[in-house]
Amino acid sequence: MIAILKPRSRLIHTLSMALVLALVQACSTESPTEQPVKFVTVESAVAAAKKGMTIVDVRTDSEWNAGHLQAARHLPLSGLDEALPASNLDRTKPVLLHCQSGGRATRASHQFVAAGFSDVRVLKPGGYAELAQAGLPTAPAGE
C-alpha cells in the first residue's frame, strides 16, 4: 500500500511511523530507580552520622534548645525557604534530615531536592529522641 502513496503522503507516513517508534522506545526505556530522597532507619542514620554525614535538624527553635545532636545543623522547617539557600551545605554530598518523628523532615526533603541536593535521607520513623537514645552525642538543653 505504501508503494501507491503519493510522495508527500509517503513522507507523512514515514514521519508518523518514526514518531510512533520513538514514543514506543521512550515509554519502554526504564527510568532510573535512584531517588533523591531515601527514608532510613535509626540504625542507618546512626551509621551515616558516625561516618560524618551532614545532619540537619528541622525542628523548631524551642525543640532545638531543649536538646540536639552535637553534630547537627539547625535549619527549622518554618524558615527553610530563607535559610537553605543561604546555608553553605554541599549539595553534592548526602544529607540526613530529622525532626521529632519524620513528618517535618519529609516535608523539608522536598525543599532540599528543589534546591539541588542529590542525596537526601530522611529519618522516618523516628527523630531526635531515637538518635540520642541510640548513642549519638547530644548537646545539653540551652546550648
Task: Describe this structure in a few short sentences.
The protein has helices spanning 7-28, 42-50, 61-65, 80-86, 103-114, 128-133, and strands at 37-40, 54-57, 68-69, 72-74, 95-98, 120-123, 138-139. By secondary structure, it is an alpha/beta fold. It folds into 2 domains: 1-31; 37-139, 3-Layer(aba) Sandwich (Oxidized Rhodanese, domain 1), CATH 3.40.250.
Structure description:
- The chain has 143 residues and is α/β, with parallel strands linked by helices.
- It has two domains: 1-31; 37-139, Oxidized Rhodanese, domain 1, CATH 3.40.250.10.
- The chain is 43% helix and 16% strand.
- The chain contains six helices and seven strands.
- The strands form two sheets. The chain has a five-stranded parallel beta sheet with strand order 1-6-5-2-4. Strands 3-7 form a two-stranded antiparallel ribbon.
CATH H level, superfamily name of the largest domain: Rhodanese-like domain
Q: Given the C-alpha coordinates, what overall shape results?
A: elongated
Q: DSSP helix count?
A: 6
Strand content: 15-25%
Kindly state the number of beta strands.
Answer: 7
The low-pLDDT segments are 20-24, 26-33
Rg value: 24 Å
Rounded mean pLDDT is 84
Query: Class of the largest domain in CATH?
Result: Alpha Beta
Derived from helix and strand composition plus strand pairing, the structural class reads alpha/beta
Strand order of the largest sheet: 1-6-5-2-4
CATH topology of the largest domain: Oxidized Rhodanese, domain 1
Topology:
Blueprint: H1 7-28, E1 37-40, H2 42-50, E2 54-57, H3 61-65, E3 68-69, E4 72-74, H4 80-86, E5 95-98, H5 103-114, E6 120-123, H6 128-133, E7 138-139
Parallel strand pairs: 1-6, 2-4, 2-5, 5-6
Antiparallel strand pairs: 3-7
